[in-house]
Design goal:
Layout (H helix, E strand, L loop, with lengths): L7 H10 L4 H16 L7 H24 L4 H4 L1 H24 L5 H16 L8 H23 L50 H19 L3 H17 L6
Helix pairs in contact: 1-2, 2-3, 5-6, 6-7, 8-9
């Protein structure tokens, strides 16, 4: 229905995840329905019929998911569901931001930023968005629009945040079992500068990049993205062993 065209992007996104992640697809669809209920069109006879059909379809999908998967807490428990959806949003954002910072600005990256923004918005159905999620939602949308504009105009994009000096890094949700790793000693020169294992001083800007690489790797490990984790760990090891960043 044209009256519910505002729901179209979410329903399309739900279809994209329907096969590879039916649980995430379920919650995206639920978010779309909740948005539809709040529109004026939901008060009309046609609108009520349309939304009722969507709810019946969603209930059927819920039963199918419960019958197919052993672990269904992400469907039946809102707290688990919120963590599940947040993990998916952070995973998509981590990939898009990592590609962007590696100067890969193609359409898949733009699409991923748009997807991340939508997934963070989906979290709103569980309550007020945490500040970090709100920041990443806004950043993802701004970045997607910015890269799209650059693609159309031929302008060379700036990696990271084009308006600020820092980029909000994705942080894995904390759990009761999450215990910070103990601080490790570092090798310093007589001047107090950190040295690589080859004896080359690590410049202050590379120390910042080192911390970023480790953060991205940790996030990727949390969400079982082994390939991305290995990539960022290799970059971190390059800085620690040679004093150089292989991404440059």
């Amino acid at each position: 229905m044209t009256e519910f065209k505002v729901l179209t992007p979410y329903l399309k996104l739900a279809d994209e995840f329907k096969e590879r992640d039916p649980i995430l697809s379920y919650w995206i669809t639920m978010h779309a329905i909740q948005r539809g209920i709040k529109t004026p069109a939901s008060k009309t006879k046609e609108g009520k019929t349309y939304l009722l059909q969507k709810m019946e379809e969603l209930e059927a999908r819920k039963k199918a998911i419960i019958s197919k998967f052993e672990e269904t807490d992400a469907i039946s428990d809102d707290i688990v569901a919120e963590a599940y959806c947040e993990a998916a949003a952070i995973k998509v954002f981590s990939w898009a931001d990592g590609q962007d910072r590696s100067c890969n600005f193609g359409k898949p990256v733009i699409r991923a930023f748009y997807t991340a923004s939508s997934l963070f918005e989906v979290l709103g159905q569980f309550g007020d968005l945490p500040m970090k999620a709100e920041e990443l939602k806004k950043y993802s949308k701004v970045k997607a629009v910015y890269l799209s504009r650059c693609l159309k105009t031929g302008e060379t994009p700036v990696p990271g945040n084009p308006e600020e000096d820092t980029v909000p890094l994705p942080v894995a949700p904390q759990t009761i079992s999450s215990v910070p790793a103990p601080a490790q000693p570092v090798i310093e020169s007589a001047e107090g500068r950190v040295m690589s294992t080859s004896g080359v001083p690590i410049q202050s800007d590379l120390m910042i990049r080192l911390d970023e690489h480790v953060s991205y790797a940790r996030s990727a490990i949390q969400y079982e993205d082994v390939k991305t984790a290995v990539t960022f760990l290799q970059r971190a090891l390059s800085i620690l062993t040679t004093g150089q960043d292989i991404t440059n």
